[in-house]
Amino acid sequence: MSDHSTDASAPSASQIFAGLRVPDISRRRMLQLGALGIGAFASAPLLAACGSSSDTSTGASSGAAKKGGDLVIVRDHDAVNMDKTTVFSNASIWTYAQIYEPLVAMTEDGLGVKPWLAESYEMSPDNKSCTLKLRKGVKFHNGQPMTSADVKFSIDESSKTKGGWEFINSAIKEVTTPDEYTVVVTTKYPWAPLLADLSCPNNGIIPKDYAGKTKDEFYANPIGTGPFVWGTWQKGSALTLKKNPSYWQSGKPYLDSVTWKVVADSNARAIQLQGGQAHINESPPFSSLAQLKNTPNLKVDLFPSTRTDYIMMNQHKKPYDDVHVRRAISYAIDREALVKTILFGNGTPANSFLMPSTPFYDKNCPGIQYDMNKAREELRQSSVPNGFTTTWLAMSGDAVDAAIAQVLQASLKELGITMNIQNVDPSAQHDMTGKLDYEIAHSYWTMDLADPDELAQFALDPSSGGHSFDTGFNDPEIMDLVHQAQKEFDKTKRQALYSELQAKAAESAFLAFLFYTPFPYATASTVKGFKVLPTGSYHMEDVSL
């Protein structure tokens, strides 16, 4: 672990922008609960109608797809493990989503859900239970038929973890099984996010009692209903899944195997893609996109995403318990310049803790935007009108984190705030921010389901386990709005609650919202049917070569 502080005499913002080297920003903080997913700006209800549609298509035309082939994806870091109930890393989730499948799946636009392992679902009149009818003929990778007993086991397993994804299922009272192909999920109170919660990766369906194995044995060689079965994993190097020949979607998957290969260096990933050793580059740097777009036989996509970057301020440490200090810092951030410099224009300044591809996002919420005069005014009203000294807890080796810190350091100097920069290993930064052992730092978030409640709980409710996004923020009025929105099924009323919530959260400056970022991907022209959901996950059963 390295541990040092920079010289407090910072260069100007213009000097930083002129010389900034822009890196790969795809690395996902392990702490986030998908957080732990910029398309439609209209809000949409999640549970307005529970239907029986059986459409499971995600884009690829079965008539045009060619069967066979071994596809290779290059990425900058490895998965952690395959335990769907406790692991929060995207590299793990995007891989095990090909093994475990949920009862309902997120729609392509990220604004709702559709039937998946359940062929239909219906809410009770009192909105306190949902009855799901399972597809018949679905088998696990070991040949065992999937029944309601497996579904109950899977949801119960995820609900009882400690320090994992159990918060997603916090409203569930019980799961009952009237017959082999019927499941009833009953909640403690009306719970609007229920179907979206059931689509979350932690609620993927696995065999009851781990198919006779211990939990550790099972997750070392996992079994699900998905299009790909467990293959081999050379940790730190490559993970391979193989085709499920008995997949319930007839004719799919098309590929024989998918391999996620760890290639930390962004130039090496680009070379492997161009040389044909890889078919998909999961995280090309934004600085390289223009060149990649002009490379023959390659395609560049910027998929709408729920990635949002934030600055966290620990309210358990003075002076960050002072709202005027937090507002001053938030006003001092030139978001347009960050987007232009770090993302090469491939992003937009954030106005809300929610993102445009999330239901009930409010594009009319102004948020706090760059205004140094307002920053000075807020600081004058604060407990430290003449400034103070603070320490930014940086993730060593993360160039985006470093760029944000340097730009902020220059801006805060204009306010009389001295910001030193302490570099620690990324895992140490994760641990320290999780324990609220820091003053100011950078983090980001991607959603895992089609409902804002996942982030609202994590970011605004200190009792949910996320320590209010590791800021210690505690506002009873805002928490009350979070809880009201959880129980409101009327889409117009729910939108009003979330609009008020976004405005009040912005005013509190509990986080400084930075920018919204798409998911950049570079693929070989031979790859067909590959699409990334706003959560970052993808359906490899639809992909062909």
Automatic annotation (TrEMBL):
Matches recorded under CDD domains: PBP2_NikA_DppA_OppA_like
Gene Ontology biological process terms, A to Z: peptide transport
Domain Solute-binding protein family: 113-462
InterPro entries in the record: Peptide/Ni-bd, SBP_5, SBP_5_dom, TAT_signal
Keyword Transferase (UniProt): no
One Pfam family matching this protein: SBP_bac_5
UniProt KW keywords: Signal, Transport
GO molecular function, one term: peptide transmembrane transporter activity
Any one GO cellular component localisation term in the record: periplasmic space
Family recorded in the similarity comment: Belongs to the bacterial solute-binding protein 5 family.
Name of this chain's protein: Peptide/nickel transport system substrate-binding protein
